[in-house]
Amino acid sequence: MDQVVVVAAIASGIRFAMPILFAALGETVSEKAGVLNVGIEGIMLIGAFLAVLISVQTGSPWVGLLAAIAGGIALGLLHGWMVVVLKVDQIVSGIALVVLGAGLSGFGYRLALDGGAVRVPGFRQLDLGLLSHLPVVGPVLFSQHFLAYVGIALAFALGFMLRRTGLGLTIRAVGETPEAAAAAGIEIDRVRLCCAAFGGSLAGIGGAFLSTAQLAGFVENMVSGRGFIALACVVFSRWRPVGALFAALAFGIADAAQVRMQALYPDIPYQAFIILPFVIALLAMTMPGGAARGPAQLGRPFRRG
Amino acid sequence: MISGPILALDGVSKSYGDVLAIDDVSLNIAVGEVFALIGENGAGKSTIVKMMSGEIAPSRGTIRVLGEKVAFSSPRDALARGISVVHQHYALVPDFTVAENFALGTAPLGRLDRSALNRRIRTLAASVGVEIDPDALVGSLDVAGQQKIEILKALAREPRFLILDEPAAVLSPEDADRLFLAIERIRRQGISVVLVTHRLADVFRICDRVAVMRMGRLVVEGDVTNFAPEDLISLMMTGERGAALPSQPCARAATATAARGDTPVLQVRDLELHRANGSVAVRSMSFDLAAGEILAVAGVEGNGQTELVRSIAGLERQACGSIGFSALEGELSSHSPQALRQAGLAHVPEDRIHDGIVLTQSLAENLLLGHLHHPAFVRKGVIRRDSVVRQTTQVIQDYGIRTTGPMQPIGRLSGGNQQKLVLAREFMNDPCLLLAAHPSRGLDIRTSALVQGLLIEHRDRGAAILLVSADLDEIWAIADRVIVLSDTRMHGPVPIHETTRQEVGAWMAGH
Ligand SMILES: Nc1ncnc2c1ncn2[C@@H]1O[C@H](COP(=O)(O)OP(=O)(O)OP(=O)(O)O)[C@@H](O)[C@H]1O
Ligand SMILES: [Mg+2]
User: Fold this and answer.
1) Measured from the CB, is residue B402 less than 6 Å from ligand 1?
2) Does domain B246-344+431-511 match CATH 3.40.50.300?
3) Which residues form the ABC transporter domain (chain B) (predicted)?
4) A97, A262, B239, B433 - which has most CB atoms within 10 Å?
């Protein structure tokens, strides 16, 4: 492969990484507070669908993005309500969310858009002037979608929030030792609900990015496992947002590379390439440190008294 | 100025299903008074504390703060009214540093100013006269260290009303003194204090009024000066004044050397122990422990007692030196904790919640822990439920455990009753080497006496017992020899009757 191909693969790899990154960042915060959401795949699907639907109807991709965020919050809260208030098993509720998201988005798509192709109004490219014409770094670093910069900044911001602020301390305590946090005057259920909603909103953004920035249009089940890859990113990064950024980039670039390799090596069955990012995910999980301990009370409801 | 009580319970009851934990209790606590709440294990003291702090809601009755009726829905509401609690089972996040635990719930949501936080903690600690490292991980501290953090954390909130649930049980005499001085000081500032304790000396030393609880009911309430210690003991045990009291165990009368063998059961040579943070706890210690003797380890906590016991129990590995256990070949650390237990080692851990029991499992299952190899309980890998339940029922009777039955989750029991089950489990099957770290911590007077009697009984049977205790009274009551750990050094061992409390006290202080 020559340099041009590699540069293009990395540039698009960053783009491919973004849906995973957003979902993984939201899930990191949610899991830090003790709420496991294996249903982010479903939320991403709803986000992807709402973003397409609303931006087509309003003509503005930004309004579409807002709709995806609202949908994400709604589903995040639904999950939160199930597991935090009703104390339903978190895995069960999460799986229900996957099914619900797939069903609702597919059904809505056929209902509202007749299941046909639509022209999705695109985001205007961020103009970084001369920077984007630099060789190599131009296309890789300075020609990305606006939201990509938001995602990368968010990874660092959340890392700072969790480690260095009172809010982060509160969230971590709620996921580690809720009894102690409650005794310190923290309302456990409220914090968990907020974190679940936050996780949902970011999964919504991830879905919106996929359908309006990375691709342009909605297809049923288009998230195709990215939600689960995001879950793997959270574990692999050991619940650290900046780690999640690098994990997501690794998967994104692997994904972009496999797409190009399919074209380069037509003799090899394309399925072998498609599974490449998933193989990497599996291998990464078996690496030392990959199995580090998560929040102690992850997945467990808090009961008073 | 406020004249009425700062906090009043009015006909308060609390039931858990069929269990009536608190039965119609009314209490008034005045501004600036130190109020003692005493009673036997399971009497309901902690339950009262939890209702005052908003952790649980009363089933019936009302709580008033400064005359105003309140319905706390969570500890947050109580904290907002200036009620601060030191819990019997600490409310600390083990994965956080000391400073982070202080910040929890009090720091603003924004950026943490760690240097200001550390300064504030150091100042507060200095004002009480203790030393703490704000950057230490709380999980790496021993129980006394955690207790100090918990107390300082409550003081840091500048409460109007401070509740302490058995705060002094794990503290060294010096630290307990410091705590009492701090209580005196805040009392003068008009802050009210409720002190739950099993040590009557504490009641007479710093409390103005005392309430005695028994089986969920308030037996009596009044000025401390109206009672003699015997009155309180009698009231706690029987609910009446002047009842005949069971006699204390009399260790010295027993033939201390009756079963004492010549070959040591435990042989410790040139042991060097490190704390979890890597610092040296003990530089070099050697001693023998023979069958049929109780060797006490005294000293201010944090001087290697925790590490010593954990090394002998096979839970951590010593830095240098050797430990030999007569029941097994070779170095002790080459055997697994399970092998050690099967060879007859028993261990009453200092941190019962984390190392002693599984809170969500039943009494029967907790009794089974560590005895899974015993044919009476497990046959061909299948648990013999009947015999386990029968044994547990027996234990409940023998130790007077307050519970609804062998299948109740142990987390529902009062702290002292949990401890009783741990002791029962470790005494079972007549161990030949018993490591007892603070065995009577948190136990009421009656049960402490029972436990001390059992220790003597097992010693006379021929068990070798290593007793870690911060309580010199206990050591003088039952131990045969004593060693003191202080400042990375070991003093002794000396036979109890060849030393004095003054000498041991001086060793503890590092002289
Ligand atoms: N969650 C619960 N479910 C059922 N019973 C409970 C629960 N919590 C406490 N109890 C019961 O209430 C009674 C009082 O317990 P409490 O913890 O108040 O005792 P205590 O006086 O603090 O004893 P100790 O000195 O051992 O700490 C006990 O018999 C206990 O079994
Ligand atoms: Mg108690």
Assistant:
1) yes
2) yes
3) 7-240, 266-511
4) A97
